[in-house]
Design a protein that fits this description.
The complex is a heterodimer of chains A (about 140) and B (about 325).
Chain A (H helix, E strand, L loop, with lengths): L2 H4 L13 H10 L4 E5 L5 E6 H8 L3 H4 L9 H11 L15 E2 L4 H11 L3 E5 L5 E6 H8 L1
Parallel strand pairs in A: 3-4
Antiparallel strand pairs in A: 1-2, 4-5
Chain B lengths: L1 E5 L3 E8 L18 E7 L1 H11 L4 E7 L1 H13 L3 E6 L5 E8 L7 E3 L8 H15 L4 E5 L10 H11 L3 E5 L2 H8 L5 E2 L8 E2 L2 E2 L3 H13 L4 E7 L2 E6 L3 E6 L12 H13 L5 H16 L9 H7 L3 E5 L1
Parallel strand pairs in B: 1-4, 1-8, 2-6, 4-5, 8-9, 9-10, 10-13
Antiparallel strand pairs in B: 2-3, 6-7, 11-12, 13-14, 14-15, 15-16
Classes of the chains: A alpha+beta (about 140), B alpha/beta (about 325).
């Protein structure tokens, strides 16, 4: 099986200059935990997730989670999110991004998702333009 | 790549009933139970996308979606194999209801919602995404009504953008949006005459009226104009020809007319995008539309039935 046989054909993506507020609106309404970032040609340039926003609002949060005594300060999260709500998302984007192509084997996508612990992997064409994504649930559906 | 745009998509809810009485109903009549029902993504561009996908042709569907019904539209399209590229809005995607009386399916009753109000930021977000998509587009279908908040000149702007990017535009809409878009000279124009049998203010009742109105649109720069004449017949006008496309079909065989007109257009696009001659495309399109009308399912999926139906379709040069 190829990636094209199991992928979700959706081009939901954002540009690096949209504000944080808009990104949260898109993540919430599209029900996506993360979203690819593309340039004006539709080429994949990065990735941004809920986790990246939480990390931006509460630096060190994920590291502190390992401490059983850590209690997150929700007021701080709210204040910081409000302060960055109108900032462009550019500085919160992960620019090192894994991807697969439609012609790759399904196992290649599965390997990335399982080994790297990511929720989905973008699929790009020969020119690096976004054509879809492979989600964990696509793999589970496919391998059942 | 074929791109379809439905700015005001819908969830199509269809109910087949024995009969429906409204107003002054008795205690026994106020509840109408549906014999059957179906739910599917709808809207002109959406219907074209589903047909193309069922015929094995990759395509991308764009537009606005929102709320629970927006998820139904996106989910349905993905299940059909259509690539989705929708902008999420604050409002809720509309639901359109069709009531079909069993035995009289050729004469359905439709209740269409207006759709959610689209905010200026959402329109800007969509136009940016549309511009990006045009780099991959060979054909663009602009279809259906405009939701509240969207300027009637938007199809004009989108047609110009698509043509500048080298794509051919098929436009199917009505009212002011159609009139304004004609100035940008789409490649194919199919006026939506469900509510008003007019084009640019002129009547479209007789063959002569249809031909005259079509020729005027061609003179303005369109390449092909297709106008419905009756349920089983259309007229296509080009610079050099006028064709009447007809089918010898008993309308009592119709089970579901919703979307049949969009399937007709989708069938034409399916053939033209493979460089078929216009006459063949028209014949295939009408056969696809009739095959859909004769199936309870909104959009036919059986290529063999469409090809068999082409025998019933005649294309005559007027």
């Amino acid at each position: 099986m190829k990636v094209r046989d199991i992928m979700t054909r959706d081009l939901t993506a954002v540009e690096k200059d949209i504000p944080v507020r808009e990104l949260i609106f898109i993540l919430n309404n599209a029900e996506m935990p993360n979203v690819p970032v593309v340039d004006e040609d539709g080429k994949l340039t990065g990735f941004v997730s809920e986790k990246d926003l939480i990390r931006a609002a509460l630096p060190g949060y994920f590291e502190m989670l390992h401490s059983t005594s850590f209690i997150p300060d929700m007021n701080q999260l709210s204040r910081k999110l409000t302060s960055i709500a109108d900032e462009p998302i550019e500085k919160f984007i992960q620019t090192t991004v894994m991807s697969v192509t439609e012609d790759d084997d399904d196992l290649q996508a599965a390997d990335l998702i399982i080994r790297k612990g990511v929720k989905n992997v973008p699929v790009v064409d020969a020119d690096g333009r976004l054509v879809g994504r492979v989600r964990r649930i696509d793999l589970l559906r496919h391998f059942l | 790549m074929i791109v379809t745009v439905t700015l005001n998509p819908a969830v199509d809810k269809m109910y087949w009933v024995e009969g429906l009485k409204m107003c002054d109903v008795t205690q026994e009549e106020f509840l109408t139970r549906a014999i059957r029902s179906s739910t599917s993504a709808g809207g002109k561009g959406v219907n074209v996308s589903v047909l193309l996908s069922r015929l094995g042709m990759d395509n991308v569907a764009m537009g606005f979606v929102g709320g629970h019904t927006g998820h139904v539209v996106v989910r349905d399209l993905r299940d059909e194999g259509v690539t989705t590229n929708f902008v999420w809005t604050h409002g809720e995607t509309r639901a359109n209801v069709t009531l079909l009386q069993v035995g009289r399916e050729h004469s359905p009753n439709l209740i269409n919602e207006a759709g959610p109000t689209i905010l200026p930021d959402e329109i800007n977000r969509f136009m940016r995404r549309y511009r990006r998509m045009l780099a991959r587009a060979t054909w663009v279908v602009l279809g259906g009504s405009l939701p509240p908040g969207v300027d009637p000149g938007i199809y004009n702007e989108m047609t110009r953008m698509a043509k500048d990017a080298g794509a051919k535009v098929i436009l199917t809409t009505g009212g002011e949006a159609l009139t304004r878009a004609l100035e940008a000279c789409p490649y194919i124009v199919k006026p939506d005459t469900r509510e008003h049998m007019t084009l640019e203010g002129k009547g479209l009742t007789t063959v002569d009226e249809i031909v005259e109105a079509g020729k005027h649109v061609i003179a303005c720069g369109a390449e092909i104009v297709i106008i419905s004449h009756d349920v089983t017949g259309d007229i296509a006008i080009t610079r050099d020809n006028v064709w009447e496309i007809n089918a010898e079909v008993n309308t009592s065989r119709f089970k579901n007319l919703v979307g049949a007109d969009d399937v007709f257009l989708g069938g034409i696009l399916y053939k033209l995008s493979q460089d078929a001659a216009l006459e063949e495309a028209l014949r295939f399109g009408l056969a696809a539309g009739l095959a859909s009308a004769e199936s309870e399912e909104k959009i036919c999926r059986n290529m063999a039935v469409i090809e068999e139906g082409m025998k019933d379709v005649t294309v005559t040069n007027l």
